[in-house]
């Protein structure tokens, strides 16, 4: 037990000393995760909104497919993207393997279905009367759609936070497509796995503390926004 | 003519919820749409508000055929506003709820304030202008929804059960506002209700809906009955053990029927001998509505009759009086 307490104290000291290696790992993690969250939100939120708002053939099939893809294992995405971007792959010529771009591509594929599915749920939960009210007040169908979107805004923010939470904590894609290259593609989760392999716990615990702190800060921010919405 | 409906049918999930061969609505009217829950009132209002298309049939607005897939639908919708039963206000302030309508109509910001204040004044909600809309009570929400409809400067306003879930104070304000909208702003008004007294008090025309059909009655005397053919070849309708009367119909078996309250005659109970088509009952309510008297008579079931005011005075009717009621065969409509 004392080794855990020792590691915790050393980790706090490491964070306090502003160790550049540690903070660069945090920076890479945040950069890659925020990029993939942003990209998947730009693509997934309009897609989810479209699927939820329109009636079309096989709508249920599409929704079920996206719901199923929410459980996509990270190693499956890693393998799939690896098959395309490795030297022998179709996109091998782009030389993307073991780059931050490759990690972003993998993470976007991982969370795109999550963003789409949760957006569909968020939009579907908005009372139909909002759309009808906007239309009867003279809004165009597009403006009525914006009203529905506006009423779902806090649920949509929750979607983005859920997507960010998924990628900041994932390891399979970062390891397989990023390669855990020190000073370039090493993220918090891959660094923690490496430290575990080495039997060194100080850096691992320090990064664990940071991961929990990030999750805590994001949730405080979300609660603040929800509070403002109610006010 | 404001609206003309021809052979209008709406089917939901295989069920025919509206079936109106013909219905015309005049400009400038304040019209009540009377009917029980599930009679198709809201569906009809939503079709007239151009929010949902009918399954088949023709709808004309101001002599214009409505194509629900047409590009000018938004332009036409801007003349017709529907205030829903339990309306929703957008999750922002009261003022911004009203401003939304003016923004999408590209009204200049400097003129918006005046229009918003005028509308809020009309429903007595100006002091709530900067309140969060979703914190208002049911009655206040209904009043803001009316103000929001008014800033749209519509030609027609539809109210779906405007006083169904509000207290008496808010009910008075809403009823008065509906009258003012119609009188002063010359906006055609149609509202749905299942309150007969409210319908007759506020409107110049009452349309009754029953099971999706316009029925030629004020909906009050609607009963379930069974039609049986007697040995003399006549058909009688029995609505309970004591009440059966002659009907003229080709139908047999279980039916729904309406007895027009305008065609029910009252007479002193001692003057008549009860028999088929003549029933003895007791007056349990008398109310005055637009110069005529509405009598509620308990004959085993409650029956409503309308009498001209002078006739009620001549007969010196009082609550508790025993009376006889009778009606001609053609006062009974079977559907």
TrEMBL record, chain A:
One of its GO terms (cellular component) is plasma membrane. Signal peptide: none annotated. It comes from the Bacteria. Belongs to the binding-protein-dependent transport system permease family. It comes from Candidatus Desulfacyla euxinica. InterPro entries: ABC_perm_TupB-like, MetI-like, MetI-like_sf. This is ABC transporter permease. The chain crosses the membrane at residues 24-49, 61-85, 97-123, 154-181, 201-225. PROSITE patterns: ABC_TM1. It is found in: Cell membrane; Membrane. The lineage of its organism: Bacteria, Deltaproteobacteria, Candidatus Desulfacyla. One of its GO terms (biological process) is transmembrane transport. It is a multi-pass membrane protein. Keywords: Membrane, Transmembrane, Transmembrane helix, Transport. Pfam families: BPD_transp_1. Residues 26-222 form the ABC transmembrane type-1 domain.
TrEMBL record, chain B:
Residues 3-236 form the ABC transporter domain. Signal peptide: none annotated. SMART domains: AAA (SM00382). Keywords: ATP-binding, Nucleotide-binding, Transport. PROSITE patterns: ABC_TRANSPORTER_2 (PS50893). InterPro entries: AAA+_ATPase, ABC_SmlMolc_Importer, ABC_transporter-like_ATP-bd, Mo/tungstate-bd_C_term_dom, P-loop_NTPase. GO terms for molecular function: ATP binding; ATP hydrolysis activity. Pfam families: ABC_tran (PF00005). It comes from the Bacteria. This is ATP-binding cassette domain-containing protein. It comes from Candidatus Desulfacyla euxinica.
């Amino acid at each position: 037990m004392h080794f855990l307490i020792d590691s915790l104290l050393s980790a706090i000291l490491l964070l306090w000393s502003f160790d550049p290696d540690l903070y660069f790992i945090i920076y890479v993690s945040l950069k890659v995760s925020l990029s993939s969250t942003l990209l998947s939100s730009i693509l997934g939120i309009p897609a989810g909104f479209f699927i939820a708002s329109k009636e079309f053939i096989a709508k249920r099939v599409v929704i079920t497919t996206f719901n199923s893809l929410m459980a996509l294992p990270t190693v499956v995405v890693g393998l799939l993207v690896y098959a395309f971007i490795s030297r022998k792959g179709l996109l091998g010529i782009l030389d993307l393997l073991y780059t931050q771009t490759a990690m972003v591509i993998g993470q976007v594929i991982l969370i795109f279905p999550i963003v789409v599915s949760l957006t569909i749920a968020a939009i579907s939960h908005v009372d139909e009367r909002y759309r009808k009210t906007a239309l009867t007040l003279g809004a165009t169908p597009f403006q009525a759609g914006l009203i529905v979107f506006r009423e779902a805004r806090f649920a949509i923010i929750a979607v983005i936070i859920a997507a960010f939470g998924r990628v900041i904590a994932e390891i399979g894609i970062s390891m397989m497509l990023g390669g855990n290259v020190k000073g370039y593609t090493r993220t918090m989760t891959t660094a923690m796995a490496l430290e575990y392999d080495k039997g060194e716990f100080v850096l691992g615990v320090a990064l664990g503390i940071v991961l929990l702190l990030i999750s805590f800060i994001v949730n405080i921010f979300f609660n603040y926004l929800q509070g403002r919405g109610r006010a | 003519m404001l609206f003309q409906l021809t052979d209008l049918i709406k089917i939901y999930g295989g069920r025919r919820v509206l079936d109106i061969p013909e219905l015309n609505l005049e400009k400038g009217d304040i019209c009540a749409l009377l009917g029980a829950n599930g009679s198709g009132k809201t569906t009809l209002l939503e079709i007239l508000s151009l929010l949902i298309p009918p399954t088949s049939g023709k709808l004309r607005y101001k002599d214009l055929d409505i194509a629900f897939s047409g590009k000018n639908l938004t332009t036409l919708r801007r003349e017709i506003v529907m205030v829903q039963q339990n309306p929703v206000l957008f999750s922002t302030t009261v003022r911004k709820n009203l401003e939304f309508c003016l923004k999408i109509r590209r009204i200049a910001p400097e003129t918006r304030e005046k229009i918003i204040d005028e509308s809020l004044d009309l429903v007595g909600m100006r002091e709530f202008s900067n309140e969060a809309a979703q914190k208002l009570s049911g009655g206040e929400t209904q009043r803001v929804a009316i103000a929001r409809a008014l800033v749209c400067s519509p030609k027609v306003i539809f109210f779906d059960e405007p006083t169904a879930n509000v207290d008496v104070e808010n009910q008075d304000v809403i009823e008065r506002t509906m009258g003012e909208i119609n009188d002063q702003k010359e906006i055609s008004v149609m509202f749905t209700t299942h309150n007969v007294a409210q319908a007759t008090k506020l409107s110049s025309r009452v349309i009754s809906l029953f099971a999706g059909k316009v029925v030629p009655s004020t909906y009050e005397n609607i009963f379930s009955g069974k039609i049986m053919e007697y040995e003399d070849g006549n058909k009688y309708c029995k609505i309970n053990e004591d009440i059966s009367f002659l009907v003229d119909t080709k139908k047999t078996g279980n039916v729904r029927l309406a007895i027009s309250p305008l065609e029910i005659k009252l007479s002193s109970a001692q003057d008549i001998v009860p028999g088929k088509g003549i029933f003895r009952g007791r007056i349990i309510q008398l109310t005055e509505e637009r110069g005529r008297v509405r009598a509620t008579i308990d004959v085993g079931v409650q029956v409503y009759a309308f009498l001209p005011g002078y006739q009620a005075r001549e007969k010196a009717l009082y609550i508790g009086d025993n009376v006889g009621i009778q009606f001609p065969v053609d006062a009974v409509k079977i559907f």
